[in-house]
Amino acid sequence: MKKAAFKKAESINLFNLSTPSMRAFHITWLTFFICFFGWFGIAPLMAVVREELHLTKSQIGNIVIASVSITIFARLFVGWLCDKIGPRITYTIMLAFGAIPVMCIGFSNSYESFLLFRLAIGVIGASFVITQYHTSVMFAPNIVGTANATTAGWGNLGGGVTQMVMPLIFAAFVGAGYTSSEAWRLSMVIPGLGLLMMAFVYYFCTQDTPEGNIADLRKTDPAYKAKAGDAEGSFWRACRDHRVWVLFLAYGACFGIEITIDNIAALYFIDNFQLGIKEAGLIAGLFGFMNLFARALGGMFSDKISKKSGFKGRVIILGIFLLLEGLGIMLFSTMTYLPFAIAAMLGFALFVKMSNGATYAVVPFINKKALGAVSGIVGAGGNVGAVLAGFLFKAEDVSYRDGLFIIGIAVAVTAFISLLAMLPVFNTNPAESAEPALQPVLAGKSTVERSK
Fold first, then answer.
1. SS3 for 16-78, per residue?
2. Which of 29, 144, 380, 435 is the most buried (most CB within 10 A)?
3. What's the CA angle centered on 354, arms 8 and 192, to 5 degrees?
4. Minimal CA–CA distance to 264: which of 68, 112, 44?
5. What's residue 223's pLDDT?
6. Angle at 378 between CA 262 and CA 158, to 5 degrees
7. pLDDT on residue 215
8. Distances (CA, A) of 410 to 264, 290, 366, 397
């Protein structure tokens, strides 16, 4: 019996798992969700770790920087690797190897050893690039912004759930008779096992493209690589496009801030509002929970406005979201009354997530033949932003509140830079400003998802 052939999906049918696109959609966001448990599982438990290992503010800052710095290079590498061997194998390898430092961080008995394990765990952050790459090759231009934003948003939701669940896992081990020192170490075994489980799921339940796996396609069509673009040259083509670096900067101002907040939120509420670990974790988790809808909303807004204003509309909506994010962070940093602080956090969280979605709704339209490279560079920008923010929180003479206010100013400035750097490239006439990189695709055959 001839195997069914599929094309890129033009719609998101949440309850349909019969097509490769929708299987990839659900497995990708779920895998990314679990990755957050590995990447930030230790963050809500840092108050306990700080006490046991006698960590200073500067050392905690170094740990925050380590958790996101290696991800810069990992994202650049996996973006290229997706172009080379496909997202399925790339994700499987990353999950299997990433589980090791997650489970082994419990062997840390000093600042130095903890720092090294935290650095190694940061590789898991590259999961985002694979997630975006996989949905980008599975969905058609008319829906790709929404698909990218939804899978990334639901995956990022793991950052919020982690803040809530890990303190409960810790409390369960304490309730079972383990000491606090033993409990935080044992707690990290749980997300490590989750990563190993998803490695098997990803390998056996997904495929690289709607047509099949890259390795299989090359057996029947040796020229398939040429059709997909030159993996070696794609990175340098992406590097030469200034729009990629503008998005690099923009993503640093939104996702970079998101993972920074994921790292420090629990400590921020513990130190500034005298809360316990479980209470601080619950409140910090609300920040991540906005991903349930907000990142997808950013992608949806981008797709909608592009129908009238093309690429220019996508850039404008991104600039607006970034500006509102920056203003919201500045407001949050001034709040001293807990209910107001929570409300302000949820307000700026909305625009952080929407900015994330709007950024990656632009990515597929920069250079479709270097999609993995563009995704990797822009994704790395998020971590560069987090590293720079980490240096603020590392400084002994800069409080977390002051650091957040400075970050808010930087994000607002980035909003204007994004608009000024990208808008002049495109014609202001909506009729002439269709998505430039995908003109040949839009002019080609229909990409309705169907079986033959």
1. CCCCHHHHHHHHHHHHHHHHHHHHHCCHHHHHHHHHHHCCCHHHHHHHHHHHHHHHHHHHHHH
2. 144
3. 75
4. 44
5. 63
6. 30
7. 84
8. 18, 22, 25, 19
d(CA 72, CA 130): 14
CATH, domain range 20-215+222-443: 1.20.1250.20
User: Per residue in 100-142, pLDDT tens?
Assistant: 999 999 999 999 999 999 999 999 989 988 998 899 889 988 8
- Give the integer Cα–Cα distance in Å for 196 and 186: 16
Nearest C-alpha neighbor of 102 from the set 74, 67, 73, 51 = 67
pLDDT per residue over 140-163, tens digit each?
A: 888 887 888 789 889 988 988 999
pTM, two decimals, is 0.79
pLDDT digits (tens, 9 = 90+) for 199-248: 999 999 999 989 888 888 878 876 655 234 555 567 778 888 888 999 99
Residue with tokens 């970050």: 407
Q: Look at residue 139 and give its three-state secondary structure.
A: strand
Q: What is the pLDDT of residue 377?
A: 86
Q: What is the pLDDT of residues 188-198, one digit of tens each?
A: 999 999 999 99
Domain map of the chain by residue range? Answer: 20-215+222-443
Distances (CA, A) of 119 to 71, 228, 364: 9, 33, 30
Residue type, 304: K
CA-based R_g, the chain, Å: 21
Residue of 213, 270, 255, 280 whose CA lies nearest to 388? 255
> Average pLDDT for residues 150-177, to the nearest whole number?
92
